[in-house]
Design brief:
The structure is a homodimer of 510-residue chains. The first copy, chain A, has 13 helices and 28 strands. With 510 residues, chain A is of the alpha+beta class. Chain A folds into 3 domains: 272 residues, Bira Bifunctional Protein, Domain 2 (BirA Bifunctional Protein, domain 2); 113 residues, 3-Layer(aba) Sandwich (Rossmann fold), CATH 3.40.50; 84 residues, 2-Layer Sandwich (Translation Initiation Factor IF3), CATH 3.30.110. The radius of gyration of chain A is 26 Å and the shape is globular. Strand 5 of chain A pairs antiparallel with strand 5 of chain B.
C-alpha cells in the first residue's frame, strides 16, 4: 500500500474511511450530546454554500421563507398520529421549564411541569398546517408556497455524522394547492429542483423516481426521491418530495372557498433536503487523500499557501500571494491565503484532506519568477506522485475560472460513470438477486462493492408488497425508487411473476 | 383624528400600535406554542437581510461560523451554575425521548426517560467552551474566533413578539484569547461592529457603552451594550458584548501552552444580537401608517403595483412594469412587481403598512406616457394627504439608487434627532430624577413620552449598587450604560454624593 493522506483507505474499511474524512477534513465531530454533531467551520462553509445555492432555486420557483416554532404541542402530534399510519414516535419531549437548586445540586424543578408536553419538531407539517388553516380562506390565497430552514430532532438509536444524527439541519418546503394537478406539479417541480441542484452544484449524479408504497412518508399519497450511488455501491436517499393528498388538510381543516363559493380541502405537499447531503458529497467525491469538493460548493475554491520561513523574504512572498488573491477575488473566485502559523507541508495536506479544488503553493522562486505552482485536487496524483503544474501568474489568473469549471465537470463525470456502470439489468429472479448481492454483513458495513439492480416488477401494494419488503430486508436490501426515465417492460415481475409494469432500483442503502 | 393605515396610533396606545404593525405589516404572529412566534415572509425577509449584512461583518473581522448542538447536558449547566452567580434557571428541559400509544391515546413513554436531562440551549457558552477545551492546545491556536447563527430558548413568563419570546433567533460569537488585552480588544471590536451595523444598516442610532456591574451577563467581567431609543422614549438593548475574563475557561479547563511552554487559562468573550432587533426597527421607524423600513434592510426596496382591471390593457401594463423591474434589478435594487389577485388600493396600503421604501403605482396613463408615479414611504404624507411624485421612466430608473440612499439617510436623521434631543443632562438629585420620570404606570405600558437622563455617578459596586438599583426599580428605571463618549465630570454622584467618576444613562427599558 502506498502512502495516502488519510490513515485508512476506502478499500480497507469504507466506514472508517468516511469517519476519517469527517474528522481530518475538519467537517464535523461528535458532541458530548448523544447523537448530536458539532459542524466545524469547513463543514459549515459547505452547508452555507448548499443553503445559498438551493435557497436561490427555492425562491426562483416562487416560494417564500418563514420561520415556525421549534416546539410542537403534543396534541398536534396526537392528531397527526390518528390520521397517519406508521407514524414514528422517537422524539425529544420537553416536560419541564425550570431547574432548581436542591441541597447544592441542580435538579429539574417538579413544580415546573408543563401542562402539555412539547415535542421538539421532527418535521413541521402539523405546526405549519395549523397556520395554513388560519391563513387560507379563498382560492385567491392559493397556491401557498412556504419554505423554512431549520433544525429538527429525531431520536436515533444508531447515529453517524451527517448521515443520521439526532439533531440535523434541513429545509422543509410546505405548500397548499387548490387541486391535485397543481399539487402534483409542485411535487415534481421540486423533485426536479433537487435533481438539478444535486447534479449541477454538488456534482452528484442521481436517479429521480417514485418510492414504492411501503417507503412513502407517513401520510403521503406519493413520495418521490433522488437516489445517489456512494463509492461502496450503497444508495443514499438525497432528497424527497411528497404529494400529501388531502390527508393533512382533512386532519387540520385546511379549507378554501373556491371560485364557485364552495368549501374544499387543499391538496398539500412537502419536500426537504438535509445536512445528510454533506455525507453524500464525502462518499461520492472523497478519495484516499481526503475530500474532493466540487468548486461550486467549496467554501474556498483556491487556497494559496505561502512557503513562509520566518525570514525577511516572507514579506515579499505575502505581498505576491496577496496580489494573486486580489486578482482571483476580482474574478469572483472564493480565495484564501493561509497565513496560519503552521508548517507549509502540514498546510498542504490539511487542504488536500479538506478538498479545496485548487491548492497553490508559493515559494520565493515563484514570487521572483512571477509564476504560480498549483495542484488540482481532482487529479492530485499520477500513480503515487503528487502532480504540480506551473503557469505564469497572468496565465493562472486568466485560466482559473475555466480550471474550476473543468474540475466541477471532472468530478461529475467520474461519479456519473460509476453510477451508469454499476446498475445491473439482467437479474430476472429473486435467487439471482440474492446471488448478486450475496449475504449481508452482520453489521451492515463494508463488504465487496455491489452496485444496484434494476428489475421489472408489477407494482404490488398491501400485504404482497410487505412480503416482498421482508424478503428484501433479509438481504438488507430495499427498493429505492421507480426511475422517472423508464424503458418499456415486457416480462414478468421478479417478485410476483405477474406481468411487469415498470422498473425499480434495488440496493443496499444508508 | 385623521385616518391612518393602522387601526391605532402611537399616541393612543404605543403597545397596541406595536402589535398592529407586527400583525398588519405581515411581520410575525403568535403561535399555538406559548411564547413562540411564527415569523412571516416579510418579517423573515428582514431577518435574512440582517443575517446577510451582519454575517459579512463578522466574517470580515476574521470569525468563522460553526454549528453546535441544540441540546446541552444538564451536567454542563450545573457546572456553570457553580461558577456563575445570578444564573437563570428558566429553561426548557427534555426528559424523555419517546411517545407511546396507551389505550388509543398518545402519552410520554415512561420507559424512555433520559438518564441525564437535556436543556434546550439558552446560550452556548458551556457547550462551545467544552469544544474549545478540546480544540485549543497551544498559543498557535489562538485567537479562536467562532460564531454561530442559532435558535435559543428561555422560558419567559411574559412575552411580546420579537422583543421577548421563549424561542428566539440570534447569532452568538464565542472567542478565546491568550490574554486580557487581546480579549478586551475583541470585545470592543464587536461592540463597534454592532454600533456601525445598527446605525449604518438599520438606521437605528445607538449609544455604545459599558453596563454597570449589576447588569452584567452572569460570569462576565465587563458587559458592553448598544442602547437605542424607541419612539415611546424607552431604551432597547440592541446588542451586547462580554469580556468573560477567565471564568468560563477555569470552569471548563480551557488552557493553552504559551510560547514559554507554560499552561495558562484563556480569556474568553461572547457577543450577540437577536431577532429583538426587528422589534427595534419597528419602534424606531414605524409611523401611524405602519412600518418604514430602511432600504438597506428592506426585503424589497421598490414595489411596483400595476393597476390591473381585468381588461386587455392589463397586458401592456404588465409589460411596462416588467421592463421597469428589469432595469431596477440590473441596478442591483431588490424589486417586486405585485401581481397578486388583490385590488390595487388594498395592495397600496399593504405595502405602506409593510414599509417598502418606494411604492410605484403604474396605471394605463403612465404606461402610455412613459412615466412612473411613486411614493416615498419616509415621506408618505403632506398633512393628511398622500404625496405622489411623477418622473419619466428614464429619470426614475436613473434616480432610484440615490432616492434609496436619501431615504436611508432621512430615517437615520429622524431617529438621531429624537435620540439627541431627548437626553436630559441637568438632573442632579434623585428627587429630580423621580420628578422627571414621574410615577411608573402600573402595567409598565404607555404613559407620556420620557427620554433618558444622563447623570453623573461614582461607579459604586456591591451593596451600594444594589441599593441604587432597587431605588431605580421602584421607578421602573434602570441604568442602561456608561457611554463610551464621556464628557468630563466634576460634580457629585447623584446617588451617593461621592465625587462622580463618569456619566451613565438612566431610562425605562424593554
Amino acid at each position: 500500500m502506498s502512502k495516502r493522506a488519510l490513515t485508512v483507505t476506502r478499500e480497507q474499511n469504507f466506514p472508517d474511511w468516511y469517519q476519517a474524512i469527517v474528522r481530518d477534513g475538519d467537517m464535523a465531530e461528535v458532541s458530548p450530546v448523544r447523537g448530536c454533531m458539532i459542524i466545524k467551520p469547513w463543514g459549515w462553509g459547505v452547508w452555507e454554500r448548499i443553503q445559498a445555492e438551493l435557497d436561490q432555486r427555492i425562491k426562483d420557483t416562487g416560494h417564500e421563507n418563514c420561520y415556525f416554532p421549534l416546539f410542537i404541542p403534543m396534541s398536534f402530534i396526537a392528531k397527526e398520529a390518528e390520521h397517519v399510519e406508521g407514524f414514528a414516535k422517537e422524539m425529544a419531549v420537553v416536560t419541564h421549564h425550570r431547574l432548581m437548586n436542591q441541597g447544592g445540586k441542580l435538579v429539574v424543578d417538579p413544580s415546573a411541569k408543563l401542562e402539555e408536553p412539547l415535542i421538539v419538531r421532527p418535521t413541521s407539517e402539523t405546526i405549519i398546517g395549523d397556520a395554513f388553516q388560519r391563513w387560507i380562506k379563498s382560492y385567491r390565497d392559493l397556491p401557498l408556497l412556504i419554505n423554512q430552514w431549520a433544525n429538527v430532532v429525531r431520536w436515533e438509536m444508531r447515529t453517524r455524522l451527517f448521515l443520521r444524527t439526532t439533531e440535523f439541519l434541513w429545509q422543509e418546503g410546505h405548500t397548499a394547492h387548490a387541486d391535485k394537478a397543481d399539487a402534483m406539479t409542485e411535487t415534481l417541480k421540486m423533485l426536479e429542483v433537487y435533481r438539478e441542484f444535486a447534479e449541477d452544484v454538488l456534482a452528484i449524479p442521481v436517479i429521480a423516481g417514485e418510492k414504492p408504497a411501503n417507503e412513502r412518508f407517513p401520510g403521503a399519497d406519493n413520495t418521490y426521491s433522488i437516489e445517489a450511488m456512494m463509492q461502496d455501491g450503497k444508495a443514499l436517499q438525497a432528497g424527497t418530495s411528497h404529494y400529501l393528498g388531502t390527508h393533512f388538510a382533512v386532519a387540520q381543516n385546511i379549507q378554501f372557498q373556491n371560485a364557485q363559493g364552495q368549501l374544499a380541502f387543499c391538496h398539500t405537499t412537502s419536500w426537504g433536503v438535509s445536512t445528510r447531503l454533506i455525507g453524500g458529497l464525502i462518499m461520492t467525491h472523497g478519495d484516499d487523500d481526503g475530500l474532493r469538493l466540487p468548486p461550486k460548493i467549496a467554501p474556498r475554491q483556491i487556497v494559496i499557501v505561502p512557503m513562509l520561513r520566518d525570514k525577511p523574504e516572507d514579506a515579499t512572498l505575502l505581498e505576491y500571494c496577496g496580489a494573486i488573491e486580489k486578482q482571483l477575488k476580482a474574478a469572483g473566485i472564493r480565495t484564501l491565503v493561509d497565513v496560519k502559523p503552521t508548517k507549509s507541508a502540514e498546510k498542504r495536506w490539511n487542504w488536500v484532506r479538506r478538498g479545496a479544488p485548487i491548492l497553490v503553493e508559493v515559494g520565493p522562486r515563484d514570487a521572483v519568477g512571477g509564476n504560480v505552482t498549483f495542484m488540482r485536487r481532482d487529479a492530485l496524483r499520477d500513480g503515487d506522485k503528487v502532480v504540480t503544474h506551473t503557469l505564469s501568474r497572468e496565465a493562472f489568473v486568466a485560466e482559473a475560472p475555466a480550471l474550476l469549471v473543468a474540475i466541477q465537470a471532472q468530478l461529475f463525470a467520474e461519479a456519473k460513470a460509476r453510477l451508469d456502470g454499476n446498475i445491473v439489468t439482467n437479474i430476472k429472479t429473486f435467487d439471482e438477486l440474492a446471488a448478486y448481492f450475496g449475504a449481508a454483513e452482520a453489521d451492515d458495513e463494508g463488504g465487496a462493492f455491489k452496485g444496484w439492480a434494476k428489475v421489472d416488477w408489477s407494482r404490488p401494494e398491501g400485504i404482497k408488497l410487505e412480503e416482498i419488503a421482508d424478503r428484501l430486508k433479509a438481504l438488507k436490501l430495499t427498493i429505492r425508487n421507480a426511475p422517472q426515465a423508464q424503458e418499456p417492460v415486457t416480462g414478468a415481475c421478479l417478485f410476483t411473476g405477474d406481468p411487469a409494469k415498470e422498473q425499480v432500483l434495488i440496493a443496499r442503502a444508508y
